[in-house]
Design goal:
CATH superfamily: Alpha/Beta hydrolase fold, catalytic domain
Strand content: 15-25%
Number of strands: 8
InterPro entries: AB_hydrolase_1, AB_hydrolase_fold
Pfam family, one: Abhydrolase_6
Organism: Psychrobacillus lasiicapitis
GO molecular function: hydrolase activity
Helix content: 40-55%
CATH architecture: 3-Layer(aba) Sandwich
Number of domains: 1
Protein name: Alpha/beta hydrolase
Order of helices and strands: HEEEHEHEHHHHEHEHHE
Radius of gyration: 17 Å
Strand order of the largest sheet: 1-3-2-4-5-6-7-8
């Protein structure tokens, strides 16, 4: 069974350390997106990389539309990966929706995790005014989903630029676009629905594992109001505002991402809000 889990999620292990660092990609991304960050931790950590079922080099035959209709299906896979490798005291690093997936896994199995490091997380992408700004109106997200159905290639080209928001580095947007295009459109659409229409605000108060929130500046997908909201509602959370723009600092600004993670790991939980 355990071998099936590792093949299902295309699990790869690197690093020389005895401690464990597990990286969860964001929507439409695979484990290769972490390549600029993981080498900085390989000396001191055992690095665990994986792909979501339906993405990357995962086993597409394992895809179940019912199981993956919401984020809990992905969270359960994450727990199974941990069980298959007998992981404990994990430093979890998640990007975007990967942060939420890790958070949901930690609510089920808090003893597996030592800390949660969340890059550009959001508990809800939809605005719920007047009390919550998630970044999107309902009609905007409906339009994105409709565009996926009508013109998936055009959607991939458009959204990759919106997410990356580093126009002076078009190669980054192109890599993200290629990642979107390598995913089956039907699977991508269902993952998009599970991601962008989820509401995990009530789950924040259930999280007991210390967390670091890395909040990018000028992030359309997860604006600063979202980072502040998460910091207010997550106990034992530290919020760092980054100089990095866009939604993928591990790709566009890996040095800053690495530095802030290392600073947090050296100091631990500090309930502060600081700007670089």
């Amino acid at each position: 069974m355990y071998q099936d889990v590792l093949l299902r999620n295309n699990v790869n292990i690197t690093g020389k350390g005895t401690r464990t660092m597990l990286f969860a990609p964001g929507f439409g991304c695979d484990q290769n997106m972490w390549r600029l960050v993981t080498p900085a931790f390989e000396e001191n950590y055992r690095i665990i990389l994986f792909d979501y079922v339906g993405s990357g080099k995962s086993d597409y035959n394992a895809y179940d539309s019912s199981k993956y209709s919401d984020l809990h299906g992905y969270a359960n896979d994450l727990i199974e990966i941990c069980a298959a490798l007998d992981l404990k005291e994990i430093t979890f690093v998640g990007h975007s929706v990967g942060s939420t997936i890790g958070m949901l896994a930690s609510i089920q199995k808090s003893d597996l995790f030592e800390q949660l490091i969340m890059i550009g997380p959001s508990p809800r992408y939809l605005n719920d005014q007047p009390d919550y700004i998630g970044g999107f109106k309902r009609e905007e997200l409906d339009g994105l989903i409709d565009m996926m159905e009508m013109n998936y290639i055009g959607w991939s080209n458009y959204l990759s630029k919106v997410i990356m928001k580093n126009p002076n580095r078009p190669e980054l947007s192109k890599e993200l676009e290629d990642s979107f295009c390598s995913t089956d459109p039907t699977v991508a659409r269902q993952f998009a629905m599970a991601t962008f229409f989820s509401d995990n605000r009530e789950d924040l108060k259930k999280v007991v594992v210390p967390s670091l929130i890395l909040q990018c500046s000028e992030d359309v997908i997860a604006p600063i109001e979202v980072g502040n909201y998460m910091h207010r509602h997550l106990t034992k959370s530290t919020l760092r505002l980054m100089e990095a723009t866009g939604h993928c600092p591990h790709m566009s600004h890996p040095e800053e991402t690495i530095r802030l993670i290392k600073e947090y790991l050296a100091v631990g939980y500090v309930s502060i809000l600081s700007k670089e």
